[in-house]
Amino acid sequence: MAWMRTTAAVSVIALTAGAADAQQKQVVTGPVATYWMSAQTQSGFGAGMGAPGAKPSMSQMMGAMSGGGASKSLTLQLGSSRKPAGEPTAEHLPPQALRAGPTLPLLTPRAEPVQRTEETPTFSRDFQKPKGRMLIFWGCGERARPGQPLVIDFAKMTEGKMPPGMEAMSRGLNVTPMQPPSPSRNATYGEWPNEKTRTSVPGNGSLVGEHRIRGTYSPDIAFSLNGAQDFLGPLNLTTNAISASGAGQLGWGAVPGAQAYLATAIGGGQDDTVVLWTSSEVQASAFSLPDYLSNGDISRLVANRALMGPQTTACTVPQEVVKAAPQAMVQLAAYGNETNLSYPERPKDPKVAWNIEWTVKVRYKSQTGGLLGMEMPGAQQQGQRPIMVPGGQEQEEPTAAEAIGGALLRGLGGRIPRF
After folding, report:
1. Which of 306, 319, 318, 313 is nearest to 332 (CA)?
2. Closest to 106 (Cα-Cα) out of 217, 187, 2
3. What's this model's pTM, rounded to 2 decimal places?
4. Which stretch is the leader sequence (predicted)?
5. Fewer Cβ close by (within 10 Å): the C or N end of the chain?
6. DSSP secondary structure letter of residue 158
7. Neighbour-count burial for 285-307, b at 16+ CB within 10 Å, e otherwise
8. What separation, in Å, do the N-terminal and C-terminal C-alpha atoms of the chain show?
9. DSSP for 90-101?
């Protein structure tokens, strides 16, 4: 029996050693440099406004108001743990298909001294509590669900407290905050567009091809993007009408590569009322979703129906929303899966350390917008149905200036809050 005890002991030692070896964690260092590319396609209202932060030309503003065409924007952010010996410089050498020039300089913002002053808060004698209400709806369908709208009365605000109902709206969707490169997170940072260069990406610009990033504070970064990693295609509303029942009918063409969709509407009613609606089936602050979402968050939000799935191409805005906000702005967004690259490749042997030199993240979004129930010029050629008013009669189509300027001035009246 002694030999059996000895054999068992040896087996236990062998299993313990094997488990310890299997659980050995690989040593990972870096990355030295992190590079993010945020690619957005804009169609409908707001298209053609040029690079972010750039002053649009008169032709661009007219194109944005007419809702014609599609535009693309690209934001580049480079962060590194290195500090250069001299002035930091870096540039992105894009593929010719981008059609934005041979080089995109990544400018390092100059730090400005922060002046701290002690100020005693004062209040104006004519200070008045905010007035009005906010009506919040959510979900697609002919009629609003029971319990809607959530009403927030701003007149009931008290100092230091949110108005009743705001707690429900402030509930988040547990989206993981994204951490792009920035001057505060990296030893050295560069970005494009910037104050020196705001070259626009034309509507036919493409990310497909070889990319190279070089600079005085970063290792050389070289990678290639294929057709599946290009800008998302334009998102076009094929249906934007008010049906005979009084509900808003939204329809759009599926965007190749899109993993989720979200529709929102914001408008003004009578008596200083602001109306908000989102296609989310979840009563939460879907209005505050960030511009871009990680792959994991997209999958989770589609699963819990906060976002519409990639197969969805239609949504009905409830009658109650249209009635409360006869003039409302609607926005539709498509989210794509991000591309993540790193160099060098991860060693398969966990005993070999993985010293990462650089990582690259490319994230995608496509969006469109317009006035709810008001087709934009050129939309009917894309198969959009005519505008209908309750009762099923066609409404005479106003000019673009009347549709946009008149609706915004008469219906919204400057009461739309910023989120």
Report:
1. 313
2. 217
3. 0.79
4. 1-22
5. N
6. B
7. bbbebeebbbeebbebbbeeebb
8. 76
9. EEEE--GGG-S-
